[in-house]
From TrEMBL:
Keywords: Membrane, Transmembrane, Transmembrane helix. Residues 15-30 have a biased composition (Low complexity). The lineage of its organism: Eukaryota, Metazoa, Ecdysozoa, Nematoda, Chromadorea. This is Receptor expression-enhancing protein. It comes from the Eukaryota. Belongs to the DP1 family. Its main location: membrane.
Length: 208
């Protein structure tokens, strides 16, 4: 059998190189795929610390005249006092009430559900991220609820602290869900993704 000509050997070499390149391209993400990854950035929020709580609270209360003016007239109390009394009653019920779990989950469901419907109809992406992360967190913290009464027996503040945490995640004054995702989840996801890409790249190099 005659030896292959130089042209045939060169063609075979190019075919082998092309096959290896194709294999590596399947294992390594293309540059345009990397460009599609959108990093989530933290959003500025009104409440940066405990000192911001009261000014933000007062601003919010004074924007709800239709709700508070009748209550102020009926009780003789100003709206800040009405809020503190209502909040204290809610916390006490979350500690002592028989239906504390239902109240806690309603606190974490009603307002976020309404805002999620609005986010579906909006054109921006930031609110989608906020509520997608919120519902993921809400679902995660619903798992311990299966053992809630055992937890409550040893830790009576369980429902109260969960309700406060859900409010922190949901309220636009804190953007808790969005910012927790941007600060912790997104960097972790990126690190895991890079580690996976490095392993795939090493596999491709070994195949060579």
């Amino acid at each position: 059998m005659s030896a292959a000509s130089p042209q045939v050997r060169a063609k075979r070499g190019r075919s082998t190189t092309t096959a290896r390149s194709s294999s590596r391209s399947r294992l390594r993400p293309a540059a345009n795929e990397k460009a599609k990854v959108r990093r989530i950035r933290s959003r500025p929020c009104e409440i940066q610390g405990f000192r911001d709580l009261r000014p933000v609270l007062l601003e919010s209360l004074h924007s709800k005249d239709a709700f508070f003016i009748p209550l102020e007239s009926a009780t003789g109390l100003d709206r800040e006092q009405i809020f503190y009394i209502g909040f204290a009653i809610m916390i006490l019920y979350l500690i002592l009430g028989n239906f504390a779990g239902i109240l806690c989950n309603m606190i974490g469901f009603a307002y976020p559900a309404y805002q999620s419907v609005l986010a579906i109809h909006s054109t921006g992406k930031d609110d989608d991220t906020q509520w997608l992360v919120y519902w993921t967190t809400f679902a995660f913290f619903s798992v311990p609820d299966q053992f809630a009464w055992q937890i409550y027996f040893y830790f009576p503040l369980y429902w109260a602290m969960k309700a406060v945490f859900l409010l922190y995640l949901a309220l636009p004054q804190t953007y808790g869900a969005h910012n927790l995702y941007a600060k912790y989840v997104d960097p972790t996801f990126e690190a895991v993704s890079k580690s996976s890409l490095m392993r795939n790249a090493n596999v491709a190099d070994d195949d060579e």
